[in-house]
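Journal club side-thread
Mid-discussion, someone asked how the predicted structure for our own chain would compare to the paper's figures. Pasting it here so we can look after the session.
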Amino acid sequence: MATPVGRTLEDLRTELLGRCGFSAAGGAAGVIIPNMNSFLQNAQRVLYLLHDWARLRRYVTPTLGVGQFQLDYPDDCDPDRILGISIVDTTTSPGISTPFLAKGIMPSAYSYRTDPNYRRRPARWEPFAQIEFDACADIIYLARIFYMKALGRFTENTDRATLNDTLIFLFALADAKAHYRQPDAPTYISQRDGITLKLKQLSWARSVWNPRDAGEEEMLAKPVVI
């Protein structure tokens, strides 16, 4: 089934103008439109950072060749939202996948990382201009990269919301009401804050084990068969 797409920026802006009492402004609404666009765009950015939304979770398995220690980010990836990386040994059947690698390469590793005598299965990674591993691969591996898809463009009238447009609208409405000092602003701010708290609770509930916080001992645990 195709991933649902949200309403367009124009659709959301039209409703936002109406709910804020500006639908009858006619030509005068032109000076308000940039503000309304900004409220909607900022709402989506805030929501994106607030939670690892299921509809935006992706993974790819590029090949890490012998002697290689760098990979490009996936084309649709937000480099700041890598959820975890595991290494799959292609010489076994079925492939054996490691737990998520530890994030962070020790400074001392750069003095010998490319040494042919130091090649082994990568155990750590670091986000730079490319994804870098320590150390160079000794055989061909697959790097299973779990990440959050970056937000799509949301600047033109026909651009569609990447996230849930109902949530985007509520967050934007609360901000707009407060900005224009409308008396019912506290109602929508309360709704927004309640949803924010709920999303955080959902995030805490699923983070029983967080790969970002796993220690070195756990990272080097025995691989599991997938």
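Post-session note: Strands lie at 57-60, 63-64, 70-71, 77-89, 96-97, 102-103, 124-127, 131-134, 141-149, 224-225.
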